[in-house]
Amino acid sequence: MPAQTRAETPSQAPAHEHHHGYMTQKDKYLSRLRRIEGQARGIHRMVDEDTYCIDILTQISATTAALENVAMALLEDHLRHCVADAVAAGGDEGEAKLQEATAAIRRLVKS
Predict the structure, then answer these.
(1) Entry pTM
(2) Alpha carbon of 10 to those of 26, 27, 87: distances in Å?
(3) Termini Cα distance of the chain
(4) Residue 70 in contact with residue 29, Cβ under 8 Å?
């Protein structure tokens, strides 16, 4: 039997497979991301239509803030679910998840 790939859907995954922390709010995340996609398309349209620079920058700022809010919510879900579960289980996996989360926070802070 072939190994499972990331592209498989949860219904195809083994019953014991770990699910991501954001799964309970997936529809909310997808909705927020669709709005952000619309904002990005709006920025493109503004440039195409020669909109005033400050108005474009204002929209870019709003889009950036929206992406940052999604990132922070995903990070919180990850900490509460994936990291907390791994730490509770103990062993090397808990330490690895903590290091992974720390690296993700570092990347977010740099951006």
Answers:
(1) 0.72
(2) 13, 15, 24
(3) 42
(4) yes
